[in-house]
Write a structure and sequence with these properties.
Pathway: Ketone degradation; acetoin degradation. One of its GO terms (molecular function) is histone deacetylase activity. By secondary structure, the chain is an alpha/beta fold. The chain contains eleven helices and eight strands. The chain has an eight-stranded parallel sheet with strand order 2-1-3-8-7-4-5-6, sandwiched between helices.
Length: about 400
């Protein structure tokens, strides 16, 4: 690790919009509107913010995570109208022209963010186009072709990192990243998500704790459908700070999917942008406490394309680049016009808030537990002893 700059790198170029699956929930307009909102709010013009244009990850980088045969299949798929296999060509993962090139560019963008932080060029770095956490070594899954967080983590390991924490707050379990580093004690994967009993991908139970020699380095906090900000924050703070402090990471990598929001069409949690903003503040604080501020943040899921994602990730960019935006801030008129033009008929938010209070009562191992507290207790009981923590002590 080199001398630390206090800058923030934002990896962005409009070419990242080419990851376009067509008539599909993962519409790149959400990225266009996010960056446009952040620009209009002045977030990207703050002192110390540097925009970096990404380069595609090459095969050497991609094959740190993905099988060479899979890369060959991704390249070949657009030329074969009858292509099937490797999870490609499905409704979730349709084949499109340039699928390899655009997927490699997203991976390269997250790698650039990770390299900037590790080398000290920046204290924090963000790639809102990243977070494709479901991709497996030899299979596309859940809208994800190449697993950019995993590729970036592998790159950090190659550069000499010895302890990397990955925290995933997408509504879906971060299964691909967990699987890729299942046997690697240098990588702690933590996922807070809706229960796999109700939601794709069907994994992420508390008893998934890591492979032989890496027990305790996979941590899963599944939550029941309908959980709101209060319950979500209670669960996050009952699990995530403790396991990160026990692991003592050098770098924090996070996947900040916005699909836990109450308006998201693909899931069943009841979060608000105010709760999501509070989570980003907490992640930055943990990076500051444990990693000398080294924080690599990616986007992820999020399918309320106008109503939620641009506000949530503009809050993420604000937290990473200096300080949070006041929730009462009005969305700029020019951005509202752009959003209305890009998606006519959608309700365009007027403010950066949902008028919600994300405060919570810290978890305690006493009283009559509700569904959230039972979930917290299950995760703590299963994984905390593996990390030398007391599952019953709220100070751990």
């Amino acid at each position: 690790m080199g001398p630390m700059s206090d800058d923030t790198v934002v990896v962005w170029d409009e070419s990242l919009l080419a990851y376009d699956m067509g008539d599909h929930p993962l519409d790149p307009v959400r990225l266009e509107l996010t960056v446009a909102l952040a620009r209009e709010l002045g977030i990207l013009d703050r002192p110390g913010v540097r925009l970096v244009k990404p380069e595609p990850a090459d095969d050497t980088l991609l094959t740190r995570v993905h099988d060479p045969a899979y890369l060959a299949a991704v390249r070949a798929a657009p030329r074969d109208p009858l292509f099937a296999g490797y999870g490609l060509g499905t409704s979730d993962n349709p084949v499109f022209d340039g699928i390899h090139e655009s997927s490699a560019l997203i991976a390269g963008a997250t790698v650039a963010a990770a390299e900037a932080v590790w080398r000290g060029d920046a204290r924090r770095a963000v790639n809102v186009a990243g977070g494709l956490h479901h991709a497996m070594p030899a299979r596309a899954s859940g809208f994800c072709v190449y697993n950019d967080p995993a590729v970036a983590i592998a790159r950090l390991l190659d550069l000499g990192a010895e302890r990397i924490a990955y925290v995933d707050v997408d509504v879906h379990h971060g299964d691909g990243v967990q699987q890729i580093f299942w046997d690697d004690p240098r990588v702690l994967t933590v996922s807070v998500h809706e229960t796999p009993l109700a939601l794709f991908p069907g994994t992420g139970f508390p008893d998934e704790t890591g492979g032989p020699g890496a027990q305790g380095t996979a941590v899963n906090m599944p939550l029941p459908p309908g959980v709101d900000d209060t319950g979500w924050q209670r669960a996050f703070h009952a699990i995530v700070p403790s396991v990160l402090r026990a692991f003592r990471p050098q770098v924090l990598v996070s996947q900040c999917g916005a699909d836990g929001h109450r308006l998201d069409p693909l899931a069943d949690l009841n979060l608000t942008v105010d709760g999501q903003r509070a989570t980003y503040v907490a992640l930055r604080a943990l990076a500051d406490e444990l990693c000398d501020g080294r924080w690599v943040a990616t986007g992820g899921g999020g399918y309320a394309l106008v109503e939620v994602v641009p506000r949530a990730w503009s809050h993420l960019l604000a937290v990473a680049t200096g300080g949070p935006v006041d929730p009462a801030t009005l969305t700029p008129p020019a951005w509202r016009e752009l959003a209305a033009a890009r998606r006519p008929g959608r309700e365009v938010p007027l403010r950066m808030t949902d008028d919600a209070d994300p405060s919570y009562e810290p978890w305690q191992p006493t009283g009559e537990p509700n569904a959230v507290d039972r979930a917290i207790a299950a995760t703590r009981k299963t994984v905390f002893p593996l990390l030398g923590l007391d599952p019953h002590d709220p100070r751990d």
